[in-house]
Amino acid sequence: MIEIEVSAAGARLLQSEVLTSGRVGLRCMLRFDSSWDGLLKTVVVAGSRSADLLLQDGEFCIPAECLGRAGDSLKIGLRGTNGDGSLVIPTVWVNCGEILSGAELSQQPAQEQAKSLLAQIMDQTAQMTAIATRLREDADRGVFNGRDGADGRDGVDGAAGQAGPAGADGTNGSDGVTFTPVVFPNGVLHWTNDGGRPNPAGFDLVSAVLQALPTWQGGSY
Q1: Would you kindly state where each structural domain of the chain is located, as residue ranges?
Q2: Which 8-state DSSP code applies to residue 77?
Q3: For the segment 26-52, what is each residue's pLDDT rounded down to a tens digit?
Q4: Residue 125: φ, ψ to 5°
Q5: N or C: which end of the chain has fewer CB within 10 A?
Q6: Closest to 41 (Cα-Cα) out of 71, 95, 78, 12
Q7: CATH class of the structural domain 2-98
Q8: Direct distance between the N- and C-terminal alpha carbons of the chain, in angstroms, rounded to an integer
Q9: Residue 164, CA distances (Å) to 72, 159, 161, 167, 169 in order
Q10: 3-class SS of residue 13
Q11: DSSP E strands, 66-162
């Protein structure tokens, strides 16, 4: 957007743009001081052609024909008048710059241009599809997966669980064998049992006692 500040008959360029031939829709903003209050404002645009525009507010669009030829300069001026014409304020010209050569389409017929543009769009679509497919395949292979994180700390032990049901009673064991000692009159200890098992060897109690007693001078017991 072009911006111009207008003060009485003075005018200066606040902001310009690159001007190119064939441009359409270039906006221009005008900022007026109080001396222009109540005046009828007419914008004069001079470039490749000239145009007079009755200003409704502070903004207008540069006519496309004024930017029709490269090498020309674009200038903007204003005229302000009161209702009976007793007051007229023409401003100085504001030089907005030279019109540069704008890009132009090739001279192909419209149908061929459409086919060419369609082919470009189809080619770009195919390229984007191929890129998306490669990205999907890389993602499936885990190319973008991050490394495994470190193991977390052990959690707090949980509360003790409830006691399980009592187990079934075990099978009764086989009956044991009872060994009974018997001392014969000769002082020998013998064993008997009620299970038909082999008994321990007999033990001569009298001989064991005599051997344990001390001897005396007169002889043995």
Answers
A1: 2-98, 179-211
A2: E
A3: 999 999 999 999 999 999 999 999 999
A4: -65, -40
A5: C
A6: 78
A7: mainly beta
A8: 146
A9: 101, 15, 9, 9, 15
A10: strand
A11: 73-81, 88-90, 94-98
Q: How far is CA 97 from CA 67, 164, 198, in A?
A: 11, 96, 134
For the chain, which residues score pLDDT lower than 70? 107-110, 113, 214-221
Distance of alpha carbon 42 from alpha carbon 28, whole angstroms: 14
What sign for the dihedral angle of Cα 130, 131, 134, 136? negative
What number of residues does the chain have?
Answer: 221
- Which amino acid, one-letter code, is at 89? I
Cα(53)–Cα(57) distance, integer angstroms: 11
Is the separation of the CB atoms in 46 and 68 below 8 Å? no
Q: Is 26 within 8 Å of 17 (Cβ atoms)?
A: yes
C-alpha angle 139-142-147 in degrees, rounded to nearest 5: 130
Cα within 13 Å of Cα(142), Cβ side = 3
